[in-house]
Structures are given as structure tokens and as C-alpha cells.
């Protein structure tokens, strides 16, 4: 097993993929139900960087060590820690094991080990099993050996990351200050990872950036990341909400004023440009600026000079501009609502932020983050999503994006308490508490798309002389099969056709059917098509 783990960690793959493969290997070796690898950040908070067997929403959770005594116990010891099934210490993973059946989490075995980097805690690895007695003395000794391998891999990974960052930054001191920096932006989808890579590349330039995206996508978070990764990160980033600036005071807010410039100006006051000197000025909702102020902002961007209101004295500025808007500024320029020359000054490097509906399973990661926040704020033992609620979250188009998701999760947790749920239980949020208008929800037993396509194809190729089945309403009641039986038969046929098309390859069949491979295996077992050994019946 040690050899397999070494191969996983030595593979020429991205860090996240290597660690994910390692957790899967460890889970198989210990024959347990879940393995989690968590990293400790500067705020004494743990978060998962790789997991096998845990619900997808767990990847977005942030576990404050002081609030989770099991994690604190693991971090306090150098040797593996095993928790008695009768332990009264609450389990951070209550309700988060992927194979959820009946009770949120039956009595189970738990084991964990603290991982160190240069004698400082790096994080922990946790192992969970639903069956008691899974972990014994031999398992603890094996975990101790594997911990040494993981710690060596962590050191190598850190060195590789440091080298990459130092080459990109070109400054040893700046690079060392940023190594291990945590990001506030959660997500593992291809769309978000590609965007973060682009942001990091352009951050170190001084080009003006225009962030484009719908309301609620978190444009301010991306602006802060740009500033953190820029050469101006040691100076301030000043944020201006252009939509909230009163037109009569907007010029004073941006450029400052001198005493006596207008009624109420009792002293000199610097503006936002001066406050951001040497750093970054973030103009949020820049499309809301009045035309009169747009002309003055354009002069500042062209000349790098400002004048406080009430004086002719010129002040040189050294500010990097990041602007953001949810409007179509290009269309607004054609409509005369936004100056064309200012638009071109601000949009030297436009960056579209993808809406939540285009970020695949990131909605579950973000939901997990907000669930953990609600759990801590409301003093709950645990809170999770049902499978039906997860499906509803993924089907909903999210016009309000991440901000709307946060409100939906917080509201659902409060509703559970208002309806009499106990804080001492693991609470499960169902789709009815989310209040999402998604039309007719897909049922768990609904047949895959491929099955519908196959049925339609057979109907279109039926011979002219064949007798079609009578409509359901015209059949005698005793001839109408139960709906579940019909759906199961349709699913069996779709899975069988997909497997035949891919010569028995389950992974390729899962992609064709639009399912995760693990879910396809579970469905096939339920339908009696696959035994635990993995063979077709």
C-alpha cells in the first residue's frame, strides 16, 4: 500500500489531483467509508483539500478548530488518535458521509493523525468507518507510517509551489510573503480554476482591469485577489461603491476637497484617490457613475493627476484601477449612457466572471461553506443537505448567484429551527425549505436522458403495421404496472445499452448517461444489475 501511495504522490499531476488520488488509495487500503485531508490555515481553521467518501458540500466547509474538539484532540498529538464509538465528542462529519442511509450518521469508528511541516502543524488526515471495529492497533501503526509519507510529499509539494511562485513573481521577498496564502474564492470547477489562473497572471501588471459579471457573483472577492497578488499588495486597496455616491458629493469623495470648498467643508479632506496612493482603487458598479463625473474621472486616468475640490493645486497619483459592473457598458456607450473614451480606458483588460449556474458542482461546495457558517452561528450540532436538496440546488438557475445562495441556505437553517428542530440533532435540509422555483423537480427514479432518446428512436422506427401500445388511460387498471417498476425497467435498459455501447466500461457508460461513476454503480446494484464484486448479474 505504501508503494501505491508513493506512486500517487509522485505522479506528474496538479497538486489537488495527486492528493485526491492519495485519499482514494488510503480509503481502499483501510476499507473505510471516508478519508479527509485537511489543511490548517493561519486563523486556526481547517478545510478539506482532498476527500474520498464525503459529500461534495464538505469541500466548502471551514472548521474552526476551537469549535470541534475531535479535530483539536488530533492536532494536539503526534501519534494517531482513535475515538471510541461511545465518545461524547461531536463528530464534525455528522451527516456528511457520502453514502447516507437512514440516520444521518450511525455509530462508527473514527481515527485521525496530525501532519507536520518543519515541526509546525500543517493539517490532519481523518478516517471514518460506519462499522465499529474497523480500526485496530495495526491500523493505527499503518496510519503512522503513511503519515510520514504524506508529510514528505507535503514538503516536496510546498517546495514546488514556492519555486513556481518565485519564478512568476521575480521577487524573492514578495514570493515568500505570499506562500501558502489562502484564497476566499471557493470552487473547483474548470470555469473558476481557469479564471483564477488568468487573474494571477494579470495581477502583477498595472493594467486597468474591468470585472464583468451578474449581480452576486462576488466581483469584490476577485478584485481583492487581484490586489493581493499584485506588486501593490503592501499598500491599501480602497473600495468605492459608485452606485451609492450622491452626485452632489461624488467629486469630493473621489478627489477630496479643501476647507471652504462648499458649505459644510470645515477642513481639508483627502479623497479616495489619495487614500489609495501606491495601491489599488476598486470602482465597484462603475456603470452607475453620472456622466458629469465620468468626464473628470477620464482626465485623472489620462494624466495621473487630481485636483481637490476648491483648489487648482495638482496632486500626482500612482493608483491601479480595478472597476466592476453588472451592466453591459459597451451597449451603454452606444446608448449614450456611458462615455466611450472612459470605457476604453477602464476595459484595457476585461475579465468576465462566470455566473454560478456555469460552475457545475461549485454550488454544493459553496453551500457547504454557508451551512458550516450557519451551524456555528446558530449553535447546531450539525446541518446537511438531503440528496433532493442538492439536486434542487444544481437545477436552479441562480439569478442572484452566490449572494442568493448564501441567503437561501441561511434562511433554510432558520426555518428548521422555527419549525421546532432540535439544536442537538443533525438537521437535514430538504428541498421544500429552500423555496426555489425550479418547476417540476426531477425525481430520484427518473430515467436518464439516454433512455428517453432510445425510447424515442424505437418509436420513430416502428413498422407501419405494428400495433402501438394503448394509452395508459385506456388500459384496465389491473394491467397498469407500478410506476417504480416501469422506471426501473427503463433505467435497466438505458444502463445496459450504455454498457454495450462502451464494451462494458462503467466509467464511459456513466459519462454517456450523465452520472457520476460511483452513483451509476450504486444505481446498478439497486436495480440488481451489479453485485458487490462488480459483475453484471
Task: Explain what you see.
- This protein has helices spanning 2-10, 15-30, 69-75, 137-169, 172-178, 190-203, 219-228, 247-255, 272-275, 291-303, 329-334, 340-346, 362-378, 387-395, 401-418, 449-460, 483-501, 506-513, 517-526; strands at 34-40, 45-52, 62-64, 81-83, 109-117, 120-129, 209-212, 237-241, 256-257, 269-270, 280-284, 305-307, 314-316, 320-325, 349-352, 382-385, 426-429.
- The protein has 537 residues and is an alpha/beta fold.
- It has a six-stranded antiparallel sheet with strand order 3-2-1-6-5-4, sandwiched between helices. Strands 8-11-14-7-15 form a five-stranded parallel sheet. Strands 9-10 form a two-stranded antiparallel ribbon.
- The two termini are 31 Å apart.
Structure summary:
By secondary structure, this protein is an alpha/beta fold. It has helices at residues 2-10, 15-30, 69-75, 137-169, 172-178, 190-203, 219-228, 247-255, 272-275, 291-303, 329-334, 340-346, 362-378, 387-395, 401-418, 449-460, 483-501, 506-513, 517-526, and strands spanning 34-40, 45-52, 62-64, 81-83, 109-117, 120-129, 209-212, 237-241, 256-257, 269-270, 280-284, 305-307, 314-316, 320-325, 349-352, 382-385, 426-429.
What's the assembly state of these chains? single chain
Query: How many individual β-strands?
Result: 17
So how many helices? 19
Strand content: 15-25%
DSSP helix fraction: 40-55%
Identify low-pLDDT runs: 167-183, 440-473, 532-537
What would you call the shape? globular
Pairing-aware structural class of the strands and helices?
alpha/beta
What separation lies between the terminal Cα atoms?
31 Å
